[in-house]
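User: My instructor asked us to take a sequence, write out its structure as tokens, and then describe one feature of it. I'm not sure where to start. Here is the sequence I was given:
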Amino acid sequence: MKPIDIKEIELFKEEINHWKNKKQILMFLKEGYEIKGQYFHKFFLHSACSMGIDIAVLTELLQFIKSIKKAEFRLIEKDIEYIIHLKERIQVYENEIKQIFQISSQKIHIEDIFNYLEYIKMNMNENNLSLDNNKFPMDILDSQFSHILSSFSTLIEVITKLNVPSRDKEPSLINNNCRYIYESVAFKHSLKQMFLSLSVEHTKPIIEDNYETNGINYGKVYYSEDNLPYWSVFEKYRDLNFQSQSDNIISISESEDIMLKTKAMKEPLTNGVLRFDFAKAAENYAYKEVYTAYKLLIPIYGMKNTEFTLVKDNKKFQIEQMIEVYSCIYKLSLEMRDQNYQNGFIKVLGEKKLMRILDLDKSKVDLIRLFSFDLDLMKGHPYLVSFKPLIKKGNIYYILPNWISNISIEKAFDKILSDDSLVKINLINQRSKGELFEDSIESLFNVLNIPFVNLKQNARKGIHETDGMFMIGDYVFLFEAKATIKPENFVEAYNNLQGHLFKAYNQLIERIRSLESEVIREIIKKKSGIDLTGKKIVPFILLSHHYFNGYQELSLKLNEENSHIPIIDFLTLKNILESKSLPIWFYDEKKKSYLREEEDINTSTLGEKLNKYLLNQFKGLIVGEQPEFQLTQDNVMFRIVKSPRIHDKKLNKTKNNKQINCFF
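Assistant: Let's start with the prediction itself. The structure tokens for your sequence are:
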């Protein structure tokens, strides 16, 4: 995934949309490629317009590209051939899905489809059977089910586009025709992701005409390779750090407060003996999970007593009430799974009955609706289901336990609280989310007693607004802070990169240039005591989420050296500065899990170490697991990405009597 000027992409889209028929579009594409070559191809990819172009037009374009003998066109040729292959296979699955509904002897309802999702998981857990009824080890089945869940938005798209009927009651039997729907949807979704991945230059195709393995010739195979060689390591290291931070974000006192709140623990007796109510275990676990997730958002939205107003009717709530409502939803899903589906795989409930089961008063019904995907009102935006634990149609709600547990809780909150058309956050002193994030940052440096300054814009003196600058030893760190929603897919990540990050990147370039002015250096010295004389300037982007931690494509030339502007999230930076250590990870093949260690930092070298870490974050993954690849029935091969499993014990720091020192 590489940065590009989004304005140029929009101009390209306007140009191609100007042409109405296939012949005109083909002429436009041929002329563009012939004159501009690879430059034109970059915009063709990033626009993703090929998804809407007829396969016959693309096939004729491919023949034209093949006729051009320049070497650069061989790479273009592979991309176009791959796009055609993906589109052809997507079309096959779209036709299959329609056919399933047309020829099915049993009428298929929405409830049947949702019911089958839970049946798939039960069959995996109890019988070790995959969707296609083959036996596999549990780790492979978990990976397969994760893929099925990731394709759920495509399933919702099928339900809404084909107007699949509902019957407003729980199915009494399993409709086995749903298996073929899930298979076709999963394959189609995977191919769409491959296309999007190519479009944003995240991957590139390597084409093998006669691919053979284990004595079997598979014919032509398209291997989707990462365009950035470091991506898989960067992704794994980033996710390991985030998972580790999330697991340890709640303090002991906070855990005790939650146990008291959920009545899982009662106030101690006069003799100090603690009393526990194990019947409240699910309630306690659910609230703790939800609060843990929200705690990641506190730097953006404030504490749980922050108020917000619903735009549609001016009703006021506190974030604490959102946490309580989500906890009740989560608790219900846990209870349904714990009952081993004795009362059915899913629940189909009217709104009033749902409120009674969740033990919520009617004043909170608006919050239930905020956490729900409406199949009627949101039918044009199926991707939104990825942020909603509940699904509804009219006043009927569908409770799918495994879907609820799949939703990222912090993203569900973030998607609501960041939507100005839904809610208005009532922050203290009417401050914006960005300002609250900046306050959290400044507070950290004040607590740690690290010299810090932020500058307001002063056009007359040539001063650019600067979110933050802090000094550690001989290093002055200059950053732009962005409070943004964590991307959920390639499209969102791409838009985030081209929007907020590209803006922050350009702003930092301006700030670095302005620091060459002695006048501005003197102003900074007077305001903060930070003297830039003889100091090394380290620019970076500070985000509210971890998605781009370690990304290296924002190039920079500083002091005649080619480098890049690194990216890190606030929580990771906070942990490093507070603990004076850097996170290190090793994969243990025997335990099939990752072990965490810390590389301690002496106070005297903190600035130097932090600089090197920012530039090379994923060097902290010392040993990773061996890569695994999957070849699909569509003859597309890709590297399998598994969720990392963390071992609950740290690596022995004195192992082999060697000091870990991987960032120098």
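For the description part of your assignment, you could build on this observation: The longest strand covers residues 475-482. Try explaining in your own words what that tells you about the chain.
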